[in-house]
Structure formats: structure tokens, C-alpha cells
Amino acid sequence: MVNKVLITGGTGLIGSRLTELLLERGYSVAHLSRKKQKKSSVPVYQYDTAKGYIEDGALEGMAYLIHLAGAGIADERWTEERKKVIISSRTEPINLITSKLREKQIFPRAFISASGSAFYGGDTGDRKHTEDCPPGNDFLAEVSVLWENAADQVRELGVRTVKLRTGVVLSKKGGALPKITLPIRFGLGAPLGPGTQWMSWIHIDDLCRMYIEAMENDSWEGAYNAVSAPPTTNRQVTIAISRILQKPQWLPPVPAFALRLIFGEMAGVVLGSNYVENYRIETETNFIYEFPQLTNALENIFKP
After folding, report:
1. Domain count, the chain
2. What are the tens digits of pLDDT across the range 143-182?
3. Which ranges of the chain would DSSP assign to H, the alpha helix?
4. Is residue 256 part of a domain?
5. What pTM was estimated for this model as a whole?
6. Domain DUF1731 spans what residues (predicted)?
7. Residue in 55, 280, 83 with CA at minimum distance from that of residue 164
8. Cβ neighbours of residue 230 under 8 Å, at least 6 residues apart?
9. How far apart, in whole angstroms, are the C-alpha atoms of residue 17 and residue 205?
């Protein structure tokens, strides 16, 4: 029998690539979505948290559950209403799924949930964080804490649960990298803010392989920092991209106050410094990164 993997947020940046890799490995993949997809390479089941509804057949026969659903952190300014959406889009789907799993007495072999490396705070300076460090107390930390608390409901059903605290995902198809790269392509590259702030990152393929490893390997359990080592600075990222694209990097840093005027509180996403270490990945697992260094990750992404 082919193992069925059910993914929430399966059409997003990570979910799309993860779906491709799972299908290549012979898994049966299905997506759980708020909207029915007109064109999809896999079955799509609908859910509605307001109505407490999950389409029949979604959970049945499921071997693994992966939770990626969540409104984009940097898609819109952080109004109070937007903050509620960011949190509820991550917690309410898993609240509903947990309720249905309990009701139907369906228990997958493993549950893998996304979380954020900002669990430790959106701006933690030069402090190094491993998985046993306490959470921060700002909005981004609150999002991750509530996200993980929701995921723990599945763990309480007796399901092995893994939470991947994900850093900045490097991909040419979305996320932060295309936004960082755009001005560089026009010869207008410049560090954002001081440029010294730490960025903990991971190549999208390494992240998706990490999800699969966490799914397949029974020794994985609890929270892991899903980042590569070592972290890099905003300035180093700008310089590396400029070199690979053979573009000049001569402009002075974009002032932090200008970014705050443009983006408001959300400017903390690019101005915040996060030095997150992949301690448990390195010491407790046999996971091998395909792109462990920033340069080879970027070269792979920007290759012709």
C-alpha cells in the first residue's frame, strides 16, 4: 500500500516543492486546502474552520500529516487585524484537524509541523540560540509559540510530532530571496539597515528533505532549528548575490528609519538579527545538507 501524505498549505512555496519530492519518492500526496484547486497534480480536499468541516476522504488512509498552512508574514503591513489572520491561519487548521482525528480515531504515524526560527524573538542581536532556549516576547515569537502549542495537540493524541523552526528559505520561486535580488539585478543592491544583522537561512531543497527525513525517521521528535550553518549577515547575502549575478554593489545601506516608515512594525522582518544554530540537527541526526554554505546554495539557485 502506498503511504499517503496529507499536506496543509501544499500549494505554497515549501509545499509545492515538497510535493514534487514526495511524488518522486513514490508517496501518495494529497493537499488539504481552504479552496478547491482547478488544476492540481494531486487530490485536493477542502476544509472550513468556521464550519468545522473537512471533506470526506481527506484524513482516511493518511500515514503522515504535514502542516504548512499560514498567511505570509511579510505579505501585508501588520495591522491588528492582519496579526490575527497570521496567527489564526496557522492555529485554526490544526485545531480542526486534531478534533477530527480524535473524533474518527485516526492516528498518523507522524505529524510534522512548520514553525519559525523567530520563536526566540524577531530581533535577538548576536545571541546564539539552540532548541532549548526560551521563546522571545515579541509578535513573531508569539506566532511561533502559538503555532507550536497548536501542533502539540496532535502530540497529545499519541502521534510522534516534529516541529521545524524554519529560518529564511532560499528559493528563486518565492520568499525573501527574489525581493532581495530584484534591486541587485538593476545594479541597486544595498544592505538593509546596518547590514550586520544575522540571517539564519536554509536552501528550500534541504528544508524539504528535512521534512521527509523527519517524517520517515522515528528518532526525530520535538523541535528542531531548520537552518543551515553558519548563519550569515544581511551585508554578506547582498555581496554574495551581487558577485554571482556579476552586478555592482556600491550603494550605502538603506537606513533603518526609512524601512520602518515604509513597512511599519513589519520592518523588523528584515532589520531583525537572528543567530539560530541547528544544534539538534547536527548532534542528534544523520541529516546531510546538500547546500551547507551560502555560496553554493545561491549558485545552485541562480544557475542558468
Report:
1. 1
2. 999 999 999 999 999 999 999 999 999 999 988 888 888 8
3. 13-24, 80-104, 139-155, 176-185, 204-216, 234-245, 256-263, 268-271, 279-284, 294-302
4. no
5. 0.94
6. 254-301
7. 280
8. none
9. 8
